[in-house]
Amino acid sequence: MQTLLSGSMTLDGLIKAVNTVIWSDVFIVLCIAVGLYFSLRTRFMQLRLVKDMVGQLFSENSSDKGVSPFQAFAIAIAGRVGTGNIAGVATAIAMGGPGAVFWMWLIAFLGSSTAFVEAALGQIYKVEKNGHYRGGPAYYIEKGLGKKWYAVLFAVATIISCTLFLPGVQSNSIAEGMNGAFSFNKLGVGVAVAVALALIIVGGVKRIGRFAEVTVSFMAGAYILMAVVIILMNIHHVPSALRLIFSSAFGMDATFGGIIGSAVAFGVKRGIYSNEAGQGTAPHAAAAATTTHPAKQGILQAFSVYIDTLFVCTATAFIILFSGKYNVKDGAGGFLYENLPGVEEGALFTQAAISEHFPHFGDVFVALALLFFAFTTVLAYYFIAESNFYYLKQELTNKHWLWLVRVPFFASVIYGATTTGGTAWGLGDIGVGVMAWLNIIAVVLLQKTALKTLKDYEEQKKEGKNPVFDPEKLGIKNTSEWNK
User: Fold this and answer.
1) Pick from 255, 287, 314, 343: most CB atoms within 10 A?
2) Complete DSSP assignment for 158-216
3) Residue 97, helix vs strand vs coil
4) pTM exceeds 0.70, yes or no
């Protein structure tokens, strides 16, 4: 027993050390600076093109090679809207205080322009593989930058992240929620989730798209409806909740002012984990869509960041702050605020908060919401891992090779359900951070192509046209699917 405990502590210590390097102050500043830079370069497209964002949702249909824009939007939302919206917000508050919510908002607002750039690039450099569109950072790094080694590095890092590091966060939250609400065995929950995933995954990207399209609409709608009801019931508390968030974010609150550094760090970290802007995951879904112009998918993916953080995460934050059912750590092993003794950060904050408003209902509702949110997120992770496996193995004629991705993926889901929340989140942070580092550098280097594409889209719209992409006209090379 002592040996196991020592091994566990060694693993957690290693995870913490790796995350200290990945999530340094330099990276936090880089994420904010890149989002601000792209916002300025696109003339704040996230504000100017809101009407276009909504209009693009149902403007085009799927084809034999690709999913519809809405299905691609749904797959991306499935990746963005997940445990980060329920447990991640709670974790940000626990580690950085209420002020962390402001920094989640900021990184979402600025990051939506980054999301546009990476998604547009995913569409521009997409390819056809086994009858379906594929794409993502590995493809635009090779074709746009001409750096094959960098593309391979990203693909390998993404496969490892999406099969070994990221799924465990989602399955851990599902298992914790189900155990808390129904006393289900965590190992049993992990196995059941892995089996259910397998039944959908073997159907390919089209089945994943159809499942995400239906499930995302239902799960996001139900959760937001619940949040709206709670907010309306507590509408008189909204001004005080906002004051607490803003005063804590800038170090002016008497209780939380001393942890402003943690507020910024965990707000940005959990914001990126939640909305995934700049992480390099959403371009895979964007590339799978059938559309006439890459900017259309870029605009849609920018909109998905809004849905994720500015709607769903904000709703969760208000629910928790209204109830007062949360703890905030002081960074030295103690607490600045403790209203849930013995409860670690995570979904239990949200369960307790909703139960405060609807007694005996919060545990069940959050458990079911986590099941839907996290399940679809894990599906999105698999789709991303598979896309990068296709990139590495260019001619995949025998699909049995995909089990090299599937077996560790399913094992990670089961392991995540049975390990501690701290270990699961620590591994997830490593996966997110590594992918974001590699992708952000790439999109900064490829910005001119994305910005040129946005300008072309807006010029055609101004002329009253339905924008159609012509890479030769714009001088963009290596776009095989657009030159046919």
Assistant:
1) 287
2) HHHIIIIISHHHHHHHHHHHHHHHH---HHHHHHHHHHHHHHHHTT-HHHHHHHHHHHH
3) coil
4) yes
- Asked whether the predicted pLDDT for residue 310 surpasses 90, the reply is no
pLDDT digits (tens, 9 = 90+) for 88-110: 898 899 999 999 999 999 998 99
- Cβ atoms of 126 and 138 within 8 Å: the answer is no
Q: Which residue has the tokens 């989640």?
A: 104
Residues 6+ apart with CB under 8 A from 265: 23, 25, 28, 96
Q: Give the pLDDT score at 1.
A: 40
Phi/psi at 280 (5° precision): 95, 10
Helix axes 167-182, 403-418, angle to 10 degrees: 40
The sign of the CA dihedral 423, 429, 432, 434 is negative
Q: Which long-range contacts (CB under 8 A, 24 or more apart) does 351-354 make?
A: 351/177, 351/180, 351/181, 352/323, 352/325, 353/319, 353/320, 353/322, 353/323, 353/325, 353/326, 354/226, 354/230, 354/319
Nearest alpha carbon to residue 219 among 311, 106, 285: 311
Instruction: Determine the Cα–Cα distance for residues 121 and 448; give it in Å rounded to an integer.
Output: 10
Backbone angles phi, psi at 336, to 5 degrees: -80, -30
- Sign of torsion over alpha carbons 179, 180, 182, 183: positive
* CB contact burial 300-318 (16+ within 10 A = b; e otherwise): bbbbbbbbbbbbbbbbbbb
